[in-house]
Design brief:
This protein is mainly alpha-helical. It has two domains: 49 residues; 175 residues, Cytochrome c-like domain (Cytochrome Bc1 Complex, Chain D, domain 2, Orthogonal Bundle), CATH 1.10.760.10. 47% of the residues lie in helices and 5% in strands. The chain is built from ten helices and four strands. The chain has a two-stranded antiparallel ribbon with strand order 1-2. A two-stranded antiparallel sheet has the order 3-4. Strand 1 and strand 2 form a beta hairpin. The protein starts with a helix and ends in a 10-residue tail after the last helix. 19% of the residues are buried. The structure holds heme C (HEC). Keywords: Electron transport, Heme, Iron, Membrane, Metal-binding, Mitochondrion, Mitochondrion inner membrane, Respiratory chain, Transmembrane, Transmembrane helix, Transport. InterPro entries: Cyt_c-like_dom_sf, Cyt_c1, Cyt_c1_TM_anchor_C. Belongs to the cytochrome c family. One of its GO terms (cellular component) is mitochondrial inner membrane. Its cofactor is heme c.
Length: 295
């Protein structure tokens, strides 16, 4: 069955060729013109569509040489530990990480005792007591990181209407991944001439639209690292971003190790298989068939 466009096209061709003495060339010309218009329209709409992509009004982050980007490289676990400290002391005032529990830190950045001590710093709702009143209890290893706000409305009310997103998976949820998060955290500038930023927003060229509801969070010396690393803005941004990569991709190291094992074992198997195949075929491949004329 012919589609609507094909029918229109055929009728146009007929019209054109009947009014012309050179029928075939004319219809050929017509079809090329028709397709030219179609292509131009498609191209035009493509251009319009791409120019409407929301992220295009932001500066693209540069590519940074992350320690863990190589095929053979694991995450920097000291950096994860420092990154947790940045999250705890700065970001956790506004951002939840509802899918990470204290037990997840064990063996990654903290020992079991350390993780338990961190959990015990927080209070969680406990059982109902004998008089029917709700109680609170100390945190345990199995508890998830506490949410800074009781609900979304409270979070928005405290942040001029903007909602601080949960950070567990944020590295995977944004274009540019680590590079974007790092650039965002270190990318606060005075707005350039002619750019007006609404009251309550901050200028950040990496954020789509350029005006973000999160004011600058990291300042040189803002925290004191327990391992003595100088807490510059870029150091803290790098550490917290590494921590967020781990939270979004906790199997990162294991995945690469398994991949490497797989490649090594499979390449051994390929070698053995090729040798075996050549050996089995060697009889057939090296035989010689001779034909003699009948005496
Ligand atoms: C004072 C509260 C506050 C603190 C502290 C804070 N943020 Fe935010 N953050 C926000 C708000 C509000 C938004 C939403 C901004 C918007 O949508 O305009 C946000 C958004 C973000 C985003 C998402 C940006 C996007 O592309 O949508 C990231 C990533 C982020 N914050 C990371 C961090 C990190 C890392 C820290 C700690 C170093 C931190 N934030 C500390 C309030 C905060």
């Amino acid at each position: 069955m012919a589609t609507g466009a094909q029918v229109v096209f055929r009728r146009l061709c007929k019209l054109y060729s009947s009014s012309s003495t050179k029928g075939t060339t004319a219809s050929f010309k017509m079809s090329s013109r028709y397709f030219g218009t179609l292509a131009a329209a498609a191209f035009g709409s493509g251009v319009v569509l791409t120019s409407l992509v929301a992220s295009d009004d932001a500066v693209h982050p540069p590519k940074y040489p992350w320690d863990h980007k190589g095929v053979f490289s694991a995450l920097d676990h000291r950096s994860i530990r420092r990154g947790y400290q940045v999250y705890k002391e700065v970001c956790s005032a506004c951002h939840s990480m509802q899918y990470v529990a204290f037990r997840h830190l064990v063996g990654v950045s903290h020992t079991e005792e350390e993780a338990r001590a961190l959990a015990e710093e927080y209070e969680y709702p406990g059982d109902i007591d004998e008089e029917g009143n709700p109680t609170t209890r100390q945190g345990k290893l199995s508890d998830y990181f506490p949410n800074p706000y009781p609900n979304e409305e409270a979070a928005r009310a405290a942040n001029n209407g903007a909602l601080p997103p949960d950070l567990t998976l944020i590295v995977l949820a944004r274009h540019g991944e680590e590079d974007y998060i790092f650039s965002l955290l270190t990318g606060y500038y005075d707005p350039p001439a002619g750019v007006e930023v609404r009251e309550g927003l901050a200028y950040n060229p990496y954020f789509p639209g350029g005006a973000i509801g999160m004011p600058q969070q990291l300042f040189d010396g803002g925290i004191e690292y327990e391992d003595g690393t100088p807490a510059t803005v870029s150091q803290m941004a790098k550490d917290v971003t590494t921590f967020l990569r781990w939270s979004a991709d906790p199997k990162h190291d294991e995945r690469k190790r398994m991949g490497m094992k797989g490649v090594i074992i499979l390449s051994l198997l390929v070698g053995i298989t090729l040798y075996w195949k050549r050996q089995k075929w060697s009889l057939l491949k090296s035989r010689k068939i001779l034909y003699y004329e009948r005496p």
